[in-house]
Amino acid sequence: MAAVLWSSTASTLMRRLCVGHRHLPGGHFLPCAPTPPLPYPAAHFDVIYCLSVFTHLDERMQDAWLAELDRILEPGGVLLLTVYSEAATGVLGADGQEMLRDFGFVHKRSSKLRGLLPDWYQTTFHSREYMVRRLSQWFSGIQYFAVPGGEQNVVTARKVPAGVLLL
């Protein structure tokens, strides 16, 4: 079966850029609200990727979206997402670095973006341990891949098949 690309974004600009793009023929680009749910039935996708999405969400929104991705991913399906790498954390300063070490999560609000973007959509950093622990609430087989010299790392996980209990 041929792959079909589905995309949901709250950004009108991103939808316009994708619709009719010569490298994305036959893609489906749907508008969505910034908060779940997405307009797809349960277990609709076998692979979901979120590039540079979780690098912006506060913890409340992150968890709401993880629960939604769990809903629309089929059992055994693969989730791929990116998070900022250690190389990108230099912007945090000493206090932010300490918070990241202690809690594994830092959501940094920018005064430059105040009023332009909601507080829940700013810049977010995660430790490897935090991501593994957090994703484990919904997914299994979590793998964290550090990208040498990259600004973002890749995290993959699988949806737990029906009838399997995560402990």
Key terms:
two-stranded parallel sheet, 8 strands, alpha/beta, globular, 4-stranded mixed β-sheet, Rossmann fold, 2 domains, 4 helices, 167 residues
Description:
With 167 residues, the chain is of the alpha/beta class. 24% of the residues lie in helices and 29% in strands. The chain folds into 2 domains: 1-32, no CATH class; 37-159, 3-Layer(aba) Sandwich (Rossmann fold), CATH 3.40.50. The protein has helices at 12-18, 59-72, 93-103, 128-135; strands at residues 6-9, 28-31, 45-50, 73-84, 105-108, 123-126, 139-145, 152-159. It is globular and about 45 Å long. The model has no long low-confidence stretch (mean pLDDT 89).
Q: What is the SS-derived class?
A: alpha/beta
CATH C-level name of the largest domain: Alpha Beta
Low-confidence stretches: none
Overall spatial form: globular
Helix/strand order, N-terminal first = EHEEHEHEEHEE
What's the total helix number? 4
- Helix percent band: 10-25%
Summed over residues and divided by their number, the pLDDT gives a mean of 89
CATH topology of the largest domain: Rossmann fold
**CATH architecture field of the largest domain:** 3-Layer(aba) Sandwich
CATH superfamily of the largest domain: Vaccinia Virus protein VP39
How would you sum up the major sheet? 4 strands, mixed
What gyration radius follows from the Cα positions, in whole Å? 17 Å
The strand count comes to 8
Instruction: Write down the domain tally.
Output: 2
